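dumping this here so i dont lose it
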């Protein structure tokens, strides 16, 4: 019986494929609840897979800070996710001191773009 259920189970995704899917959902989401769900998913991967989450979702996470500024829950989980990216798990295969530098650089570039849009 168990083998029948096992054969019918959907294929397992690896972490990077799941992260890519969540980043795509975050980018295309028009509803606040959909963005929040995607961010929650990314947050669950941020400590162990910081480079993958950052490379696919950092700009969209920063964009959510501007877009969803009035929603405390979404802002909170977005900031928590960003903090996890800056402070990954030391045992992570993607942990590196260079990630924090890259994140800081990317964060200032995106923040600068948002300031220019607000002024223009």
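and the seq i came up w/
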């Amino acid at each position: 019986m168990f083998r029948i259920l096992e054969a019918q189970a959907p294929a397992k995704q690896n972490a990077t494929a799941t992260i890519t899917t969540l980043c795509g959902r975050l980018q295309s989401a028009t509803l606040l609840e959909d963005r929040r769900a995607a961010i929650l998913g990314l947050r669950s991967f941020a400590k162990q897979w910081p480079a993958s989450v950052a490379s696919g979702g950092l700009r969209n996470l920063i964009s959510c800070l501007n877009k969803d500024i009035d929603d405390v829950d979404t802002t909170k989980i977005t900031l928590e996710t960003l903090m996890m990216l800056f402070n990954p798990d030391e045992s992570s295969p993607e942990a590196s001191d260079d990630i924090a530098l890259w994140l800081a650089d990317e964060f200032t570039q995106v923040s600068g773009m948002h300031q220019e849009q607000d002024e223009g």
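The chain has six helices and no strands.
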